[in-house]
Structures are given as structure tokens and as C-alpha cells.
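Re-run with default settings, no changes from the original entry. Doing this only to confirm the output is reproducible before filing.
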Amino acid sequence: MYISRKDLSYARKDTQDKANPADPPRFALPSGFDASGFAWHSTQGNTGLANEKPDDVQVWTAYDGGNHYAELAAAQTGTAIYQDIATEPGVMYKWSLRHASLDEAYLDKMSVMIGTPGKEIAQDAVRVTSNGHGDKTGPVGKIIATRVANHRNAQSWNVETDHTGQWESYEGTYIATGKITRFTFRNVDSAADHDGNLLDDIIFTKAYPLSYDGNGNTNGNTPQNK
């Protein structure tokens, strides 16, 4: 499914336009849709395709309906999804997510970028779980890449959307410098502009400065995980 808050519309891949069967039709978002609750935007611009709109965020539903996840490569190369969060300057924020390449044929790469809106910088990440397909846990730098072993089968919805056992977890920290911080997830490299970089379970947690009594000439606050 593609959801555009800017265009106030969505498209489902499992529907067809009779006039153009290759493209799913667009529908207006339901009147009860909570756009502010969805919160996500994308950097996707005008693609020239009827079924692809600026600000589209691509959301998949697993074949069994039990999981929803995003695909960063929706229709354009190098696009990103992002969300602006109210933050407190000087406070440490911990982020975590799960990532997987679309299939074994290509190693997708992405970056987490955080900062003042429009001035985000790539963050260092740590891989905290491994799916057993060749990646080791530990620091990975500013590029997140997850090896997977699943075969893609676009003719089977069950296979196409089942990434059980392929996800790996990553985390990092950021000390806010302003009252609004943009958390951005950018498609660095994928097999195609419309395929790759699966993202799930994005979590932001807040850590308050830990006060302590100074010894000698030491005094102050240090950000710590809550």
C-alpha cells in the first residue's frame, strides 16, 4: 500500500485499474484517517506515474495479516521516509529498528539520519541481533545492510511478504540539539528504485540527564539511558 499525506490518497497493490491493469488505482484517504497519527512523510517527488504520488510511504502487510512494515525503495532512487519529533535539547534519545534486504539477490543498504529538519546527518549504528545468514553483531558504522536468505516470488503473496527469520535489529543514540528533531531513514542502495530496504519496529526512547554530585572539580549532568 502507498499512503500519501500530501496527496491525501492511497493505493493498494492488490487492486487493479481496469483501464491500466499494471497500475493500482488511487483512492482518497477515509474521512476518519488520522493523518497526524500516521505521522510519516517521504521525500518522494513527482514520478510521472499515475499510481505513485509525492510523499508516498510504502507499507506492506504480511500474508497472514500479522505484521506491517515499510519498504524504503518505493518508486525513486535515494528517497527516504521521515518523522519530526518534539525533543528536549541536551537529552539523549535511543533509536532502534529492524531491517532486512528484500531478498538474497541483492544486499540493500540504508542509513539513519537525525538532526534539525533539513540538516540531518547519518548516525552510527550497532547491530544487536543477527539472523544467522552471515552478519555479525557489533558496530556497523553509518550504513545498515542485512544479508538475507529468502527467495523472492512475486507470483506468490505468501512468499513475497514473508520475511520470517530475515530481520536483524539495530540501534543507536542521539543527543538532541533543538526542540524539533527529524528522524530520517534513507534508501542508500537497492536493487531497483522501487524494490528494497525493508524497515520495521522503529522505536524512539528518551533518556533523561542523570544528575550526580561532583568530586573535586567535577560537576554537571551526563545523558544516560533510562
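The longest strand covers residues 180-189. The radius of gyration is 19 Å.
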